[in-house]
Design a protein that fits this description.
Layout lengths: L9 H8 L10 E5 L4 E6 L12 E5 L4 E4 L5 H14 L4 E5 L5 H4 L2 H6 L3 E5 H6 L14 H8 L6 E3 L3 E5 L2 E8 L8 E5 L4 E3 L17 H14 L4 E3 L9 H23 L4 H16 L8 H13 L13
Parallel strand pairs: 4-5, 5-6, 6-7, 11-12
Antiparallel strand pairs: 1-2, 2-3, 3-4, 8-9, 9-10, 10-11
Helix pairs in contact: 7-8, 8-9, 8-10, 9-10
The structure holds zinc ion.
The site of zinc ion (ZN) has 6 residues, from loops.
């Protein structure tokens, strides 16, 4: 999620029904990368009309794949229109990197245009239920309906999966947990681009509400080892990054875990622990975007390290 998410607002829902005026700032900015891959980077200046997260697309020889569909359908429609202005090829695949509202809210826009939505099985399990929590206890009926009618993945997987855009060799969907229990990164070998979803926040504090940070650090180390020269598209953050940027983000998680473990060793937990650790986080990461996440990040990691953090559980699927 892109902002302290209990505040995902009525403005979001209003934005779903509002066509931006010609004078409004763009919901996102397109950044061409290489070999037919582009990143669509959230533009916070558009405020409630912003895309709320980053996405990306890959134009192959016979079709297009889009990774993530933003926080609101209006921005998703704009992305679809932008892709159609670049190519007449069909948009065949949508990949959701995880279930969070700000990455799946435009699924139906693309499904209505004929795309198949793919994601980890847990995205389908959690999309209509776990996203309710982001509106808090005072969720309105309109907000509830919005969540419960989000377009679901039509194809799900639990292991690494490959899609083909004509003879483009492979778009590998790697299951690599950490941000949630159902994360996917997309690797396109032709362009040497890794589309990370919220496993990578570029110089931006992350939302750890569903995180398992030990797995997350391991995932980032694997990405750094496997794709040292790649371009990494973040789920949030204002530009695609390099391995050095990904390393900076990994180091944030490691720093947080280390500082919290040290505070716990002195007997602290909960809010007193936050007050001990927050100045350290601010000294090192005070210039990063979304610094409002620092306090909840500390609280949630404190819970995780004490073994009391509650995170969504996979459904038990029966045949
Ligand atoms: Zn997320």
């Amino acid at each position: 999620m892109n902002r302290p998410i209990l505040t995902i607002s009525a403005a979001l829902l209003l934005s779903c029904a509002t066509i931006s005026s010609a004078q409004s700032p763009a919901a996102f900015n397109l950044i061409p990368l290489t070999n037919g891959v582009s990143a669509a980077i959230d533009n916070p200046a558009a405020k409630a009309d912003s895309s709320g997260s980053n996405a990306a697309f890959i134009i192959g020889p016979d079709s297009v794949a889009v990774v993530d569909t933003f926080e609101n359908p209006t921005a998703a429609q704009k992305l679809l229109d932008d892709i159609h202005s670049q190519t007449k090829l069909p948009i065949r695949f949508i990949v959701n990197t995880h279930y969070h509202l700000d990455h799946v809210a435009g699924n139906q826009v693309f499904a209505n245009a004929g795309a198949i939505v793919l994601a980890h099985q847990n995205v389908r399990t959690w999309e209509h239920t776990e996203n309710l929590k982001f509106f808090g206890a005072k969720i309105t009926p309109q907000q509830r309906t919005f969540v419960e009618t989000l377009g679901l993945p039509q194809v799900t997987y639990t292991r690494d999966t490959t899609i083909y855009l004509g003879d483009r060799r492979a778009i590998l969907l790697r299951v690599m947990p950490g941000h949630t229990g159902g994360d996917t990164v997309v690797y396109d070998s032709t362009a040497n681009v890794v589309i990370c979803g919220d496993l990578f926040w570029n110089h931006t504090l992350p939302n750890l509400i569903d995180a398992t940070t030990d797995q997350w650090v391991a995932t980032l180390n694997t990405l750094l080892a496997d794709y040292p020269t790649a371009t990494f598209v973040p789920g949030h953050g204002d530009h695609p990054g390099t391995a050095a940027d990904l390393r900076d983000f990994r180091d944030y998680l490691v720093f947080l875990r280390t500082a919290i473990a040290a505070a716990q060793a002195t007997g602290l937990k909960g809010q007193p622990l936050v007050e001990a650790v927050l100045p350290q986080v601010k000294a090192k990461y005070g210039s990063w975007a979304f610094f409002d996440f620092a306090q909840p990040d500390i609280l949630r990691t404190d819970e995780e390290l004490r073994g009391v953090k509650k995170i969504p559980q996979p459904a038990v699927l029966t045949r």
